[in-house]
Write the C-alpha cells for this entry.
Amino acid sequence: MRDLESILQSFQLEPAGENRFRGSNVAVGHGVLFGGQVLGQAIVAALASQPDKTAKTVHTVFARGGSSEAPVDIEVEAMSAGRSVASSVVSFSQAGRLCTRSVVLMTAAEPDLIRHSDPPPGITPPPPAPASGEWEVSVVDGVDINDPDAVGPARLDVWTCFPGAPADAGMDQPLLAYATDGFLIGTAMRPHAGVGQALAHRTLSTAVLSHTLTFHESFSAADWMLLRHEVPHTGGGRGYGRAHVFRTDGALVASFVQDSMIRARPDGAGPL
C-alpha cells in the first residue's frame, strides 16, 4: 500500500470512451479496494475536463465494497462548468455493479477578500525523508493503532509525505487524498481496550461509509504534512471522525470528515 509508483500508476487513468476511464488498483493485502485510491482517482477523473481548475471539495459515498483484484470503471457526469467553479459526479463500478460515487467541486484561483486560518499545532516535523519510492508515515509519539491493547484518547497526529513524488501540481491533491483515508477508524478504536486496527476484516467489520475532503491551500505531496485526527463520537456500529492537514510552516492546507462502520463481524460475513 506504500509503493509510490503503484499509487501514481493508479492515477494514470486509461480513457475508455467519452467521459469514461478505467483505473488500476493498489494492492492493499486484504483484497478490498482502498478508499484513498478512489478519492484520488475521483479528483483526477473530474479534473480531466477542467485543466484550469483544482479540486476544492470531494464528497464520496462508499455504497458497496470493491475488490482490489479487478480494475475499476469510472464515469464522469458534468454538473456545471463555470469560469470560477465547476462540479462533476464521478461513479465507480466493477463488473457493472456501482460501488462508489463522488461529487467533486472544482475551483479556479481567486484573490483574497478576507483570510484567516486556525493556528498551527506547533509539533516538530521529522527530518526530511529520503526519496524512498514509498509513502512515508510517522505517527507522533509512536502510537500503535493496530495494537488492541494500546489504549489512549481518540486523537492521533500523523506526519505523512510522498518523497520523490513528481513536481506536478495535478498529483499533489490525489496523493494527499490517498493519505487521508487510513487513520480515522484506528483513531476511533484507541479508547477501547481489546479493539484495534489489526482486527479489521478479521473479527471486526470496518469500512468507510462516506468521506469529505476540502482543500484550502497549495502544498507539495513530497513534503511532510501533519494530519491531526480526532473522533468525537462512536456508537451504534458507526464512527464519526475529522481531521486538519498542516504544512510544516503551519499553514492549514486541507480538512476532512469521515463516517465509518465499526462492528463485530459474524463468522463468514463480508465487510458490509
Remarks:
- The chain is about 15% helix and 40% strand.
